[in-house]
Write a structure and sequence with these properties.
The protein has 136 residues and is mostly helical. Helices cover 72% and strands 0% of the residues.
């Protein structure tokens, strides 16, 4: 039983070690002002300004979570590379990383709602029909 718990935690930790945090520049390459979604949705100048402000505010407000996620991933990766036999420490890192990722998911949900509030009904329908961005 203990072995299966340890193997599960190690598998979770290994999967989490390969997860990548969102870069501070924004959800798309190029950072603010270069968001291809904005052009796909044909945002007006006012909408683009509000869109970029929402993304900027999101990243500023959640920078500590991004840093925590990156640091925890690094610690977990280092512990696994060192072939640590401290399964409790590895498990604690995995649990901590998962909790941080859940916090970021909640924050992303809030950002999405904020972005949707900027859109017209037609733009919102198009935005909602877009596939989710694959993880990096």
């Amino acid at each position: 039983m203990k072995r299966s718990i340890i193997l599960t935690l190690v598998a979770l930790a290994a999967a989490a070690a390969f997860a990548q945090p969102m870069p501070p520049g924004g959800p798309m390459p190029g950072g603010p002002g270069r968001d291809p979604i904005a052009s796909v949705l044909s945002l007006t100048a006012d909408q683009k300004t509000a869109w970029e402000a929402a993304k900027r505010d999101f990243h500023t407000a959640n920078q500590a979570l991004f840093d925590k996620q990156r640091d925890t991933e690094r610690q977990l990766h280092d512990a696994l590379d060192a072939k640590s036999s401290d399964s409790c420490a590895i498990g604690a890192l995995a649990v901590s990383l998962h909790a941080t990722q859940e916090e970021l998911e909640t924050a992303h949900d809030g950002l999405r709602k904020k972005l949707e509030s900027i859109l017209t009904p037609e733009q919102r329908a198009k935005f909602e029909s877009m596939p989710p961005r694959p993880p990096r």
